[in-house]
Specification:
Bound molecules: nicotinamide-adenine-dinucleotide, glycine
CATH class of the largest domain: Mainly Alpha
CATH architecture of the largest domain: Up-down Bundle
Shape: globular
Oligomer: single chain
CATH topology of the largest domain: Dehydroquinate synthase-like, alpha domain
Structural class: alpha/beta
Radius of gyration: 20 Å
Length: 363
């Protein structure tokens, strides 16, 4: 049964778009008719998600001329080569400038499909149907698209907003536990940045979320999307405030790149990264000890790592952190915390505090 439990809007003037959250949405042709303004639709998915959800989606898309591009699964395939496969499928099927690309999958598929949509014939339609918790609360909203480079995470990309985001919470029933935890990292992030009451709610409801209680999931997804939509509407191109959404990510991207893409999940790296950012804030006298302990405890209860991998030594960690989109004039900038719900961006951080929180022998 189709049940839209929540809807909100990313307010970006004539590029604004709806986010619909509910159950049974994959079975609602009307929603897709509203979101897609073309006849030609290329559904981009991967070898894991397509067997689970493609058939249902195709039933909802009978009004369109639909083709599929099915990619291999994994962060390691978030590459220019895979992007080229999408372009090839579009060209082989004579897709024109009026077509729409629909991303069915997690953040990897969403980011790649969005970049393909931004660049194919200089920009075509784009709709997100995210199927992981992480993509439902973060990557499908806000228009950051792109691929990895072997030397740095998400280093090639574009800002390109979708025309709609359809979140069917029922797809989370097939998600592995480890992936669910990865999504919880980005949810905790919103509480830490500027939503202390959401952090309190997460503290009280973490076990319900890990049990996949539908009402708890819908609430967490709605609140996360609302927090993100507000930031994106205020600072779409990350001139300032949007950088706060990268709390834990400078550390996290260093872990992902350093360990090899896919070894640590993005959300796991962000979980450990947020602990490092909080620990550094505490060492610098910005954050009190009790708040640090509360943050680390909640991240652990979400099933996430709270420390970086010992395989990356401190010197290498620092050099990996230098390949970051927040670097300006060669100077890294970090998101730190003055409290739960009070994040800020700064280049004025204490190198000793950084070395000590990495907790690794100096190389
Ligand atoms: P993912 O896309 O790799 O998906 C995780 C795994 O779950 C994959 O194996 C996938 O095939 C599988 N899967 C997806 N949906 C499923 C389902 N319903 N049931 C069973 N299995 C399912 O990873 P992710 O965590 O969704 O996204 C991580 C990516 O998102 C990273 O590349 C990260 O850089 C990016 N990201 C982008 C933004 C942004 O703003 N654009 C924000 C955060 C993260
Ligand atoms: N995930 C960070 C952002 O969208 O800005």
């Amino acid at each position: 049964m189709v049940d839209i439990k929540n809807s909100l809007r990313v307010e970006l003037g004539d590029r604004g778009y709806p986010i619909l959250i509910g159950t049974g949405l994959l079975d609602a042709p009307r929603l897709f008719d509203d979101a897609i303004a073309s006849r030609q639709v290329m559904v981009v998915s991967n070898e894991t998600v397509a067997p689970l959800y493609m058939r249902r989606l195709l039933r909802a898309l009978t009004a369109f001329d639909v083709r599929q591009a099915i990619l291999p699964d994994g962060e390691v395939y978030k590459t220019l080569d895979m992007l080229n496969r999408i372009y090839t499928a579009l060209l082989e099927n004579r897709f024109d400038r009026g077509c729409t690309l629909l991303a069915l999958g997690g953040g990897v598929i969403g980011d790649m499909t969005g970049f393909a949509a931004a660049t194919y014939q200089r920009g075509v339609g784009f709709v997100q149907v995210p199927t992981t918790l992480l993509s439902q609360v973060d990557s499908s909203v806000g228009g950051k698209t792109g691929v990895n480079h072997p030397l740095g995470k998400n280093m090639i990309g574009a800002f390109y907003q979708p025309s709609g985001v359809l979140i069917d919470v029922e797809t989370l029933s097939t998600l592995p536990d480890r992936e669910l935890s990865a999504g919880l990292a980005e949810i905790i992030k919103y509480g830490l940045i500027d939503d202390a009451s959401f952090f309190d709610w997460l503290d009280a409801n973490m076990e319900a979320l890990r049990r996949r209680d539908t009402e708890a999931l819908v609430h967490a997804i709605q609140r996360s999307c609302a927090d993100k939509a507000r930031v994106v509407a205020a600072d779409e191109r990350e001139a300032g405030q949007r950088a706060l959404l990268n709390l834990g990510h400078t550390f996290g991207h260093a872990i992902e790149t350093g360990m090899g893409y896919g070894t640590w999940l993005h959300g796991e790296a962000v979980g450990a990264g947020m602990c490092l950012a909080a620990a550094m804030s505490e060492r610098m006298g910005l954050l009190d000890r009790a708040s640090l302990e509360r943050i680390v405890a909640l991240i652990a209860r979400a099933g996430l790592p709270t420390a970086p991998p010992p395989e990356i030594d401190a010197k290498r960690f620092r050099s990996l952190m230098a390949v970051d989109k927040k670097v300006r004039d060669g100077k890294p900038r970090l998101v730190l915390l003055r409290g739960i719900g009070d994040a800020f961006l700064t280049s004025m951080f204490d190198d000793d505090a950084l070395a000590s929180v990495l907790g690794l022998p100096s190389a």
